[in-house]
Amino acid sequence: MWFYIMMFICNLLIPIVMLICGFFMFKYPPKEINGIIGYRKTMSRKNMDTWKFAHDYCGRLWMKLGLLLLILSIIIQIPFAQSGENAIGYMTIAVEVIQLVALLGSIIFVERALKKAFDENGVRR
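Predicted structure:
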């Protein structure tokens, strides 16, 4: 049972981090363009307008994805409460792979939104 509890907690980490980071990216984006913290892709660093847009869009997206992943992760894990360690381990790997694909896949959506809203020089369309 301890293994199940630990894996349950591990599976909730990525969605919770996405919710928290998404909230802070949306509400309190970094004040200046930097190379250390924030959404730091080439297009988002063109100017302050693209920087703010990227953080607003990514923050909202991460809050939505984080909530969706949190709910799905809980629903997926419930039937495995009485399963063996192997089944719980495989389920944990599958859930975390899905979470990582969603996390990394969000970059594609933010970049598309930036390209739709701005030209290649960072000027709003």
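Summary: The CA atoms of residues 30 and 37 lie 7 Å apart.
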